[in-house]
Amino acid sequence: MDAQGRGRADDVDPADQWVLNPNTGEYELRLAPSAAQSSVPGPRSSGGRGPTGAGGAARARRTEPARRSGAAASGDETPSPRRRTSAPADAAAGRRGRRPAQKKGKGKKVLMWTGGSLAFVLVGTSAAAYLYYEHLNNNITSVSDDGAGTGGFSKDRAINILLIGTDKRTGKGNEGYGDKNSAGHADTTLVLHVSKDRTNATVLSIPRDLITDIPDCPTTQEDGTEKVIPGKQRARFNESLGQEDRTPSCTMRTITELTGLKMDHFMVADFNAVKTLTSAVGGVDVCLAKDIKDKDSKLDLPKGEHTIEGEDALAFVRTRHSVGFGGDLSRIELQQQFLGSMMRKLKSNDTLTSPSKMIKLAEAGTKALTVDSQISTIKKLADLGAELGKFDTKNLTFATVPVDDNPAEKVKATVVLKEPQAQQLFAMVRDDVSLTAVKQEKKKEKAAEAARLKGPKAPASEVRVRILNGGAVAGSAQETLSWLQVQEGVTKSENAGNAEQPLAKTTLEYGPDEADQARRLAEIMGLSGAALKPGESVTNSQGLPAMTLTLGKDFEGAGVPLTTPAKVPDEVQKSTADKVECAK
User: How far apart are CA 490 and CA 275, in angstroms?
Assistant: First the structure.
C-alpha cells in the first residue's frame, strides 16, 4: 500500500509513492485520486509548485556555489550488529544563492557512483513518471563553469571531475561548523580521473593548506556581466573558492594550473550533503582501530565497526585532531576511507536492487550538491553516471598529493609540493596511467608499448625526421630542430611547420623499416613507448623516407623528457576503494 493510501498525502516521501503494477511488472508513481498531476512535490524553493505552468516558469534560481566537504561514500548495508546513529537532515535550508539568473539545479554525486541505476526512476511513459523526472530536474542547482572546463565530458576520452567540499555554514543545524563569517573555502578537494577505457579511476586529494598560485578568474556576476577576479601568488589552495567572490570555476582553473589536468565538470558539497546522502544510503560502515573522542568535530565512537549517518557521518569526515598526526593530512586519509566505504555501499546489490532506496538516493542526490551548468539535468547526470560506474572498486585508487612542510615558516602551518614526486604523480594521471593493476588486456598493451623501445638503435646521424607543431607553444618545432641538430647530432631533420590537427600528446610515427631510428630518437627525446606509433613513412625535402615527430600539447621544451613514470613514487600515500581500512 502506498503513502497516499495510508492517508499521508501531504509531505510524503516520494519513495513511498512508487508501487509495483502487477499487470506490467513495473514500478509506477501513484498519486492520490483527487490530486492533479502537478501535485507531485516541486522544488523546495518553489513551495511545492509543479514543474509546468506559471509556477514552473517562475522557479527560483538557486545558485549557491558552495556545499560541504568529503564527497559522500559508504560501505555494506549490514547495520544490525553495529551502532547506528542518525540525525534529521535538513536539505531544504539555505539553498538560495547569489546568481538568480543562472539555472536552478542541485548537484548529484550519488548518480556519479550508481551509474545508470537511476534509470529506474525514469522508466515508464506515464505522466506521473514524467512529472517526477521534472521534479528531480527542479532539485538540481547549477552555476557556470565560466569557461574553465572542457565544455563537457566525452565517452571516447578520459573524464576529470572536480569534487569540492566547502566549510560554508549553509543549512539548518550547521551554525557550529566552519568559520562563522566565512564565505566558504575549498576545504576538501578531490580530483576524480576515470580512464579512457573505463577500467580504472584515480582520486587525487589536494591538501587545503597547499601553497600554490591562484590564476586570474573570469567570473559571471549576478547581472550576467563578467568580472575578472585577480589572481594571487603563493596563496593557500583553499582560498581558490569563496574568498574575494571566487566561484568553483576558479578552483577549476587553479587545479589545471597546479596539475596540468583540464576539468570536465565540478560538484560542490556543503555540510548538509554529507548528512543527507549518508542517511539516504542507509548509513556508511566505518572501522576504528582505537576509541575516538574529538572535542572539535564532536565525534565520539569506541574502537570497532560502526554504521554512521547524519551528524555522526559529518563528524567523522571532519575529524583530524584525534587521528594520525592530528592535522589535515590525517583527515584526508580518514575521508578516503569513508569514500571507499560509501563506494562499496552504492555499488552493492542491497542498494542497486532496492527501488525504494534508489528513489531516496535520487531525491537526496539531486538536492545534495551543486554542479556546473554543463550537467544540470537528470539526463546529463545519468549519462555521466553511466560512464563513471563502469570501473571496479578494486581499480579505484585514492592518492594524496605528496607534500613537505613549508620551509619558509618557523611554525609549520602550510605545505608545499614534494618534488619531483608530485610532478611524477600528476604526469601519471594526465597520461591515463592506472595506479593499480587492471585488466590483463591493459597489461598486454603496456608490455607492447615497452617492447617498442627494445632492440637495436640507429646512430643519431642516420635518423631522418620531419618535425610538426601539433599543439605545443609557438616556435617549438624550430627550437627542437635546432636542439636535435646542434646538440644531439640528428642532422637529417627538418621543420615541417604546423600539423593539420592539434594533439594532446607528442607522437612519433615511423615506417616498417624505421624502428631502429624511432628507438634512437625516443632515447634522445625521452619519449615513452606509448608515443611511438608504427605506421607509414613520409617523404622529406630531399625525397627520402622519414619519420614524423608531432609535438603535442604535452611538449614542454627541447630536451625535456616526456616519459611517463610507470610506478607510483614511494612517497605517495594511496589506497584502493575495495579494501576496508580502520582509522588510527
Answer: 62
What's the pLDDT tens digit per position in 54-103?
A: 333 333 333 333 333 333 333 333 333 344 443 333 333 333 333 434 44
pLDDT one-digit tens code per residue, 479-501: 999 999 999 999 999 999 999 99
Angle between helices 271-280 and 355-368 (to 10 degrees): 170
Contact at 8 Å (CB) between 307 and 83?
yes
Phi, psi of 496 (to 5 degrees): -105, 10
As a whole number of angstroms, the distance between CA 78 and CA 88 comes to 21
Instruction: Pick the closest to residue 521 from 433, 461, 575, 570 (CA basis).
Output: 461
Region of residue 74 (phi > 0: left; psi between -120 and 50: alpha; otherwise: beta) = beta
- The count of other CB atoms within 10 Å of the CB of residue 254 is 28
pTM (predicted TM-score):
0.67
Return the number of other C-beta atoms located less than 10 Å from residue 456's C-beta. 8
- Distance between CA 344 and CA 576 in Å, rounded? 11
- Cα–Cα distance for residue pair 361/346, rounded to 1 Å: 10
With contact defined as beta carbons under 8 Å apart, do 274 and 309 qualify? Answer: no
